[in-house]
Write a structure and sequence with these properties.
EC number: 3.4.21.89
CATH architecture of the largest domain: Ribbon
Subcellular location: Cell membrane; Membrane
Catalytic activity: Cleavage of hydrophobic, N-terminal signal or leader sequences from secreted and periplasmic proteins
Largest sheet: 7 strands, antiparallel
Number of domains: 2
Order of helices and strands: HHEEEEEEEEEHEE
Family: Belongs to the peptidase S26 family.
Number of helices: 3
Keywords: Hydrolase, Membrane, Protease, Transmembrane, Transmembrane helix
Strand order of the largest sheet: 1-2-11-3-4-9-10
Number of strands: 11
């Protein structure tokens, strides 16, 4: 009995790829796509900001770099506790503060403690002993606006000084806390 084996298939070197150089490689295109995605995210989604003052300590110290999620939060869905970035109402500089109340709510500070709609708000990030004896309000937040404050209430220039901020002016929300 004679056994037949299949004829060997001739292998052909793919010469069309060998002369392309690095542009033809999949690795090149993967790296290029990755860089494009990082650049797009940097332009439209994520941006760094340097914290310019100590008004957000201890959450964010002066000179720290925070990552922002752009575009800003949906004006109709921004909530208390969100740390946001907006142009300062008086000079247009980039300002980082925490939203403490939204449209339709009342804000008051009684002996350093924050009250929203008459209820005390727990704020573990605020050192109340440094601002003991501080009083403010009550103040009503207009619809479509937010009331912002720095975590370092004793030195922060915020809505207590310049008033509420239109929610549509919020440019970004802080994604990651800063690092030095």
């Amino acid at each position: 009995m004679v056994q037949l084996s299949p004829a060997p298939v001739p292998t052909r070197k793919d010469e069309s790829r060998s002369h392309r150089g690095p542009i033809g490689s999949r690795m090149f295109w993967a790296v290029l796509l990755g860089l494009a995605l990082v650049l797009a995210a940097r332009i439209w989604l994520i941006a760094p900001v340097v914290v310019a003052s100590d008004s957000m300590e201890p959450t964010m110290g002066e000179g720290g770099v925070a990552l922002l999620l752009k575009p800003g939060p949906d004006p109709g869905k921004v909530s208390a506790g969100t740390v946001v970035v907006f142009p300062h109402p008086e000079d247009g500089s980039t300002t980082v503060k925490r939203v403490v109340a939204t449209g339709g709510q009342s804000v008051e500070i009684r002996d350093a403690l924050l009250f929203v709609d008459g209820q005390e708000v727990a704020e573990p990030f605020v050192d109340h002993s440094r601002i003991d004896g501080t009083w403010f309000g009550p103040a009503e937040v207009p619809q479509g606006h937010v009331f912002v404050m720095g975590d370092n209430r004793g030195v922060s220039v915020d809505s207590r000084h310049f008033g509420t901020v239109p929610a549509e002016d919020l440019e970004a929300a802080v994604l990651l806390p800063p690092w030095k």
